[in-house]
Structure prediction request, 116 residues.
Amino acid sequence: MPDMTKYRPMLERIIARYGKQDQMAKCHEECHELANALEGYPRVETEGDVIFEIADVLIMATQMAYIFGESEVKLAIDYKLERQAKRMGIEYTPVHGESLLAHPEDGDHPWRKEGV
Ligand SMILES: [Mg+2]
Prediction:
């Protein structure tokens, strides 16, 4: 997984140029293209095709994180990985601190707190 922080200045320029709404539509389009590439691999799509579509989705998903809230997305990732570790019966130490699974309502965005 590439460190996308290095691309932040360019990604912010793209959002500023085209606008949040257009970038959301573009993200939708690129996710669809990756899904199609994966569905067609290896019959009609090459590994290179899939890699290019992964790159497109990473570029767009990173822009979505900037638009919707990078810190919230990071907490959501931690929450989901911790939840998956629990399902697998393995240990996981949340990258961003305390366990987020203590909250009773799964799916109720328990990482959303005042000031996060
Ligand atoms: Mg694409």
The chain has four helices and no strands. The helical segments are 8-18, 20-40, 47-68, 70-88. Residues 30, 33, 53, 56 surround magnesium ion (CB under 6 Å).
